[in-house]
Specification:
Layout (H helix, E strand, L loop, with lengths): L3 H13 L7 E5 L6 H13 L3 E7 L6 H7 L3 E4 L1 H9 L1 H16 L3 E4 L4 H14 L1 H10 L3 H4 L5 H4 L3 H7 L2 H22 L4 H4 L1 H4 L7 E4 L5 E6 L2 H6 L15
Parallel strand pairs: 1-2, 2-3, 3-4
Antiparallel strand pairs: 5-6
Helix pairs in contact: 4-5, 7-10, 7-11
């Protein structure tokens, strides 16, 4: 709450040659009892160039009004929301709408508190729940059992094949276009083409957000390649966050 803190932080960053636009200040969701004064300080830090992240939203006495007051650039949802969404259908329905609301308000939304072990467990649960992934898996499966009218072990697990058969034909066709595009891109990469040229077809598909390449250990090689039209629509404040070379 000390107004001099911001000046001292800016001076320290200047000494090491780091612009404040590359620094995210994380504010705990419960911090700052003097809301008006706290909002003024946060606003001052934002005007100095810092990105502001509101951390731990969704626990205890979280209130959406706090987002409107502080106007953070980033909102980190507490992991408990994801856990509750996997256990309660009504929360599962509300969570995407909360994320959509925050997006429309201009915030980047992150999910916090996921350890490697927790990510694996949650990913397994979410894969069974979200229809889009099931449709994709059903569209890409060309195993002998499925062609003969049966089910392969992979499709039978979690009802993936049943979900694919129950999906709208248009959704399955759309998934197939991504699968076939990815196959052709893989061949081109193995033939020595660059990521940009090899995946040009994929980038033209409506729902392609970005392209990136991983090494055998799952680390990203090089930077993201994003559609030009989407890059122009991104807030300039988020541009330092677009680089993810070396990410796991």
């Amino acid at each position: 709450m000390d107004a001099n803190y911001g000046d001292a932080l800016l001076a320290a960053l200047k000494d090491i040659g780091l612009p404040p636009q590359r620094v995210v200040l994380e504010v705990p969701e419960q911090a700052g009892s003097e809301t008006t004064r706290f909002s003024e300080i946060i606003d001052s830090m934002r005007k100095s160039g810092f990105l502001i992240a509101l951390d731990g939203f969704g626990v205890k006495h979280s209130n959406i009004d706090r987002v409107w007051q502080l106007r953070p650039d980033i909102v980190t949802l507490d992991r408990c929301l994801l856990q509750q969404a996997t256990e309660h259908s009504h929360i599962e329905c509300v969570l995407p709408r909360l994320v959509s609301l925050l997006h429309k308000s201009g915030q980047l939304v992150l999910m916090g508190g996921l350890s490697d072990r927790a990510r694996g467990a949650d990913r397994a649960r979410m894969q069974r729940r979200f229809r889009a992934r099931r449709v994709f898996r059903a569209a890409e499966c060309r195993c002998r059992a499925q062609r003969s009218g049966g089910q392969c072990d992979g499709c039978a697990d979690g009802g993936i094949a049943r979900a694919g058969r129950g999906a709208r034909p248009g959704a399955v066709r759309a998934a197939r276009s991504y699968v076939s595009g990815l196959e052709r891109a893989s061949v081109k990469l193995m033939e020595g083409e660059t990521l940009i040229t090899a995946t040009g077809e994929l980038l033209q598909l409506a729902d392609t957000a970005r392209r990136f390449l991983l090494d055998q250990s799952g680390r990203q090689i090089g930077d993201n390649v994003v559609p030009i039209v989407r890059t122009s629509q991104r807030a300039k404040r988020f541009s330092p966050l677009l680089h993810s070379e070396g990410a796991s």
